[in-house]
Specification:
The complex is a heterodimer. By secondary structure, chain A is mainly α. Helix content of chain A is 67%, strand content 0%. Chain A has eleven helices and no strands. Chain B starts with a helix and ends with a helix. The chains are: A mainly alpha, B mainly alpha. Chain A: This is DNA-directed RNA polymerase sigma-70 factor.
């Protein structure tokens, strides 16, 4: 079957209900789409990487639709998509091809969406969280001050990006997976093929190097 | 990196690291395997059983109902634990052990009442109750470990619920295995000792088993 048959459009970085509408309509799909997904997942269980790629791509809008339906908004939807894709990978042996695929997928997506909402409710509202900015009137800093702060933040980001890029490959991987993408050790280990111990050591070394590189006394030299 | 690219990259990573997997057996078959292991443990304990006393006790309706209730609770809770460990299965499966649990608790309560009305029945002393408690906890432990290990092969999305059901299954199986070794009738204090042991096993499973299973589901 053509790979394009599974390729559904992926909306942009900020998900809204209308982006996720096709996926929500897929909630009630029981026709050939369901059967094809089920067959592709069965092939993926047998090790067919191309079929697995198609299934995972088709899952993205469905997961996003479920997350939006549960009340997850903005960038958090993409986090739910990432978490759910990783859960699908770990749970793929539990899928029974004799049963429909979408209820299995939706159960995973719903759970990850609920986890994201719980995390969000536990976390204090942060100023860079778009939801918190939408929800309140902000008198805002003076235009000059905002510009200065924005430039400073961009400079800090650029310095950090340069420092991360200069790390050895193993350390860079550890920082990207564990610190930047906030993946667990097991997830990072599954994705990189490195042991949990090696990832911990690499992260420790990377943080030491980054601390040294970004120390205030080096600021003048680095920038 | 834009978000669709991030998803595309993860999809590529996951597809790139794909290895064939053996499909998990249906929950019912896995529950039967665990029940078989519990029965095998019972057979190992058979040489220590008081079989003539067991025949007499099982002739008493409430003791018989309590024993059947405990065994059914163990089987139903194990089946429910395996069901809830698979994504997409109804959460209502968690209610399955409730009817046999009601039979087990109800019949045990009736036994207490009978012991109170007919005090000539053989009742347990403090030493025997300590023995029952130790038996329930120590037999529940290997059964819990085995069940949690089997459940870890799946992906429980509600790990604490699944682990608590596993605790109930293990504790109920231990109580059923105790029946042939139990040299006395039920009393309120005996029931209390059983209740505390069962709650302890469920609580420990919910706490530690939940973390273990949660780690499996979330990859921690």
């Amino acid at each position: 079957m053509a790979a394009l048959a599974y390729r559904m459009p992926m909306p942009g970085p900020t998900w809204t209900r209308s982006d996720a509408l096709p996926a929500m309509q897929a909630r009630h799909a029981t026709g050939p789409g369901e059967a094809s997904l089920s067959a592709a997942m069965r092939a993926a269980q047998d090790g067919d990487a191309a079929a697995y790629r198609r299934v995972l791509r088709a899952c993205v809008p469905v997961i996003a639709g479920v997350a939006c339906g549960q009340g997850v908004r903005g960038a958090a939807v993409d986090d739910v998509v990432q978490e759910a894709l990783l859960t699908i990978h770990r749970a793929r042996a539990t899928y029974d091809p004799a049963r429909p695929f979408l209820p299995w997928l939706r159960a995973i997506a719903q759970r990850r969406a609920v986890d994201a909402l719980r995390r969000q409710s536990r976390r204090p509202q942060e100023v860079h969280d778009p939801a918190s900015l939408d929800g309140q009137e902000d008198a805002g800093p003076a235009p000059g001050q905002a510009l200065e702060e924005g430039q400073e933040a961009r400079l800090r980001e650029a310095r950090l990006a340069r420092a991360v890029a200069s790390l050895p490959a193993g350390q860079r991987q550890a920082v990207e997976h564990l610190a930047l993408h906030e993946r667990s050790l097991a997830e990072a280990s599954a994705l990189t093929g490195r042991s949990k111990g090696a990832l911990k050591v690499n992260l420790h070394r990377a943080l030491k190097s980054l601390r040294a590189a970004l120390a205030p006394d080096r600021e003048g030299r680095d920038v | 990196m834009s978000e669709p690219d991030r998803h595309d990259r993860l999809v590529e990573d996951l597809a790139g690291s794909l290895a064939p997997v053996r499909r998990l057996r249906p929950p019912g078959r896995r529950a039967v395997l665990w029940c078989g292991a519990a029965l095998a443990l019972g057979l190992l304990l058979l040489p220590f059983a008081d079989l003539s006393g067991l025949r007499l006790r099982l002739a008493v309706p409430d003791l018989q109902a309590a024993a059947i209730g405990a065994a059914l609770t163990a089987a139903a809770a194990a089946f429910a634990a395996f069901q809830t460990s698979v994504p997409g299965r109804a959460r209502a499966w968690a209610l399955l052990p409730l009817p046999p649990l009601a039979l087990w608790l109800g019949a045990s309560g009736l036994g207490c009442l009978r012991a109170w009305l007919a005090p000539s029945s053989g009742v347990a002393d403090a030493e025997e109750m300590r023995g029952c408690f130790a038996f329930l906890v120590s037999v529940s432990l290997p059964l819990s470990v085995l069940l949690v290990l089997m459940l870890r092969r799946a992906c429980p999305l509600r790990p604490t619920l699944t682990a608590a059901l596993a605790g109930l299954a293990a504790a109920a199986a231990a109580a059923a295995l105790l029946v042939p070794l139990h040299p006395h009738d039920a009393t309120a204090t005996d029931l209390l000792a059983h209740g505390v042991a069962v709650l302890l096993v469920i609580g420990l499973n919910g706490l530690f088993g939940g973390r273990l299973l949660g780690g499996r589901a979330e990859g921690a």
